[in-house]
Design brief:
alpha+beta, Rossmann fold, two-stranded parallel sheet, 3 helices, single chain, 100 residues
Length: 100
Amino acid sequence: MGFPNPWLLPSKQEWAQQRDNVAAAIAKLEALGVEASGNVLATRNPSKRIAAEAARLGCSAIVMAADAPRHQFFAGMFWSQEPYRVKRRTGLPVHLVLEQ
């Protein structure tokens, strides 16, 4: 269930797709006149790692794609709710872009 599984590591194509997604998001922000940078990370605790990277890089804000928030008791167990954990964890403004 929550055990590490080496067979579930992302493939080179999946890493490339994520880097392409980040590059596209950066291009859109820069087209709007916003200075932006991005990175693709692998970690077991995404909200903690994202907050630490933002602090290390001196970011003034974080922009993340997000699913609609869930308000059920078990919502915290879903990976789709990770952007909301980042928003609670960091002291920076976190702008969530809801996917449609």
